[in-house]
Specification:
The chain has four helices and two strands. The chain is mainly alpha-helical.
Amino acid sequence: MFNIAIYSKTMKGRMEIAERRHGLSLRLRQALILVDGHTPYGMLRVMLQHLGEPEELIGQLSALGMVVSDYDLPEMPVFGHAGADDHSSIMQ
């Protein structure tokens, strides 16, 4: 995780704060509350330390789809293999 990354709540995360539908543990809920969309991860990490391992907490919230980082990249597209082994056109 990058210290300058900014984590924000997703729609699912905001709904969890309002409705408590997913039954988060108290420490995960508190961690989610601290994610504000403005605080860099380096500072957020310090704020989360009293709840447990910050990287683990953010990782769990991210895996649940409740937070996202401005450094999260979309998945790379899968390209077909058509012509991948044919290098004859490279030298022409």
